[in-house]
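As described in the Methods, two query proteins were run sequentially through the folding procedure within a single session, without resetting any intermediate state between them. The first query and its resulting structure tokens are shown here.
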Amino acid sequence: MDQQSAPPQPPPPSGSVSPCRFVKQVLLGRWFMMFASFLIMAGAGATYLFGVYSKVIKSTLGYDQSTLNLLGSFKDLGANVGVLSGLIAEVTPTWFVLLIGSAMNFAGYFMIWLAVTKKISKPSVWQMCMYICMGANSQNFANTGSLVTCVKNFPESRGMLIGLMKGFIGLSGAVFTQLYLAIYGNDAESLILLIGWLPAVISILFVFNIRTMKISRHPNEVKVFYEYLIISVSLALCLMGLTIAQNVPEEFTTLRLKEQAARAGLSRLVVVEEEPPLVSSKPEPEIVEVPGGLKCEDHEKRDACCCTNICNKPKRGEDYSILQALLSVDMLILFVSTFCGLGCSLTAVDNLGQIGESLGYPQRTISTFVSLVSIWNYFGFSYGVQLTLLFIIISELFGLKYYSTLFNCGQLASPLGSYILNVRIVGKLYDREALKQLTRRGMTRSMVHELTCIGKDCYRLSFLILAGVNLFGALVSLILVMRTREYYRTDIYKRFRDEMEANEKEVVMMKTIDDASDKKQSS
């Protein structure tokens, strides 16, 4: 009787949450997912370090510059051809995509390390191309798994988010340089091993934190992004100061660092700084059904929607199918401008080691240049901004439904530009000048193990050609500006704000129903 008359136990106060439940809520929340994505991006920039370890590959395996540039082009091919990762992400969970990327990263760079350290017999050139392509391609799985998921979880702030994430990729080169100098000294062979195992471990640690969640509005969302911006800027400044301090005793360092920074001239910060107006006034495409009578509401029908109505394209900002986007004029313009801009930039970055060698810089100073390129990839206004803008523009023009595939298709022009400019032009011109120098010394190619060019003439004509190609790409980009000027004057983010409000109303309604049910049971 006493038990029946005892009053019911009051519910625990709202502020008293068990530590385990709180930790679980944090680890599985949207914000920790974004933090984990930043860490994965900070480990996904190994492709920027090719200029550091390319010298050891060239000297150990006896390659000429054209062969080394061929390896660099396959690296760029792997780093930019992410269609496979995008298609896999369409039909598999995110954790599976990240695990595949981890395995490919370790396998590719570990095989290169074995070849360079001569723990295995000397591989053929095609085998080395396959290894470096595999290792670099793992970057796309990290991009697809984390970047695409973050964009879907924060669609209204996609510009700031993509700018920050690509900024962390840019900084990763400087981070890896400092780590390998601290752990291994100035041993470029060990750097190859480091970029093989560390990014793989990072992806595995956060493999279950990266997942798509229900969109909800946070009142201080923009403030959080600015706080991450401050953290990333502080990290970049610390890395820059540390990098410069390591080479202060050398008299020519300051001048050369300025020259390399100007040559690198890159960019993440500009995108993040200018995103708030883009977020508030530049808005988001309203997603509607693809015209032509087909309804793509169910996930099971996405393949059928993708292959139909190719000619009957939606308006800008609506959900394009993959073929509709790839065959559009806007995508063609993006392809040409990416070919010119990223192709030239990748060529310069890949040849940075040989540029320093031709001008007589020591290996440690060359590593400093590569590290500064990664840092200015964050602060600059050229190479760094291109991929960031490419990803944002694709999401704004063609929608988010097939974004994991489309943003990987958008960067296919980059390895093509790298191959033509790097291997067929810059590499050939370098080898031609090196052979001229051998002839003047009365030597032939068979008399030297490594074909090396010394002097300013090694890259003079090459960079004049790259400057002309970049100018053409800039003119082509103006066409896209004129075509999309009216579209960007509209509210392209309205649809996602409406979706967030609908989700909030649904949450409030479900909470009201649950409270009513609890009261009914207690009574």
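Immediately afterward, the second query was submitted; its sequence and tokens are:
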Amino acid sequence: MCLFKELEERGLKIHIHGRDFVAGDYIAANIVTAIKKSRKTLVVLTRNLLDSTWCNYEIQVCDMFLSYVVNSVKV
């Protein structure tokens, strides 16, 4: 079973790029909106994500937002 399907079956809200991002909005805006609506944020790192320039950009946006806007704990 896919990780996100299993997490959703456990009652967690999963924000998936291809499914949940608002078309026409900037990627960074979609990420920030999703983080603001969340109590906790989990980024699942995969080899494909790490090898992708765009995905690395998305991780950096998330990291900057968590570092400078939200009082967060990163593990």
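DSSP finds five helices and no strands in the chain. We note this only descriptively and draw no conclusion about the first query from it.
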